[in-house]
What does this fold into?
Amino acid sequence: MRNVAEVQEVEGASVTAMKIGMRQSSLSGSVAEQRVQRRLTREAPGLEALCQRIIACRQCPRLVRHRERTAQEKVRRYRDWTYWGRPVPGFGDPAARLLVVGLAPAAHGGNRTGRIFTGDRSGDFLYRALHRAGFANQPTSIDRDDGLDLTDCYITAAVRCAPPDNKPTPHELDRCRPFLLEELTLLRQIRVIVALGQIAFRACLDTLKARGVPLPSPRPRFGHGQVAVFANDLVLVASYHPSQQNTQTGRLTEAMFQQVFDVARRYLDANSGQSTTG
Ligand code: SF4
It folds into this structure.
């Protein structure tokens, strides 16, 4: 494992392509969303089909109950919202070289808005950093119609349904892992993975192992800013999760978080043109 400070800065090229986003058009129905979905169906059918399968998933009884009950009960400040209340698929650029993996949708964030890291403080923190690092066209993420667009970045989670107390069980993580595995297969350009928090970090290692990527020995351990390099120069960067618990206590500052994405950017630029997740 290398620390972020050890990473050398070099120049490189970025990939820009059609973006996945607002794919839940059949459920929300704006004209803009329907246009995006038609384009996805045409240009990234595998990823679009995966997103639809994720949205329809009901494999984890505890999480299905929780996400649907939360969507019915709501919280006072969002009582006028129609909550999403379903699994939340990934979001971003199908040609992304950067994959950001979070833990799970927030009960009143992604589970409300239907887009990952959208509508909560963690998302604000994340998209500010992505915007500064050049991966997002704006620093805010409010709802699926807010115009957010990612370039060279795709965001997903270890578990796609909001879990009680933000704690998925090991079984729930196991059940949801095939979706992350499939994303890694379909997102063929991925070279850098940023794992947000220890659970996401472990989920990434387990998924890479399932994908046949040899893990270093000893197995990489989680630590903010730690970097593990795998076969084909695939890189996994560990970060504290941008939860309010971490950001409000100063455990994770904006500068610390920014450094993670600056490192990701430098690795991407250093390895442009090389092969991928295997
Ligand atoms: S957590 Fe994953 S596997 Fe479980 S119900 Fe949600 S989408 Fe399906």
Observations:
- Residues 54, 57-60, 63-64, 87, 159-161, 172, 175-176 surround iron/sulfur cluster (CB under 6 Å).
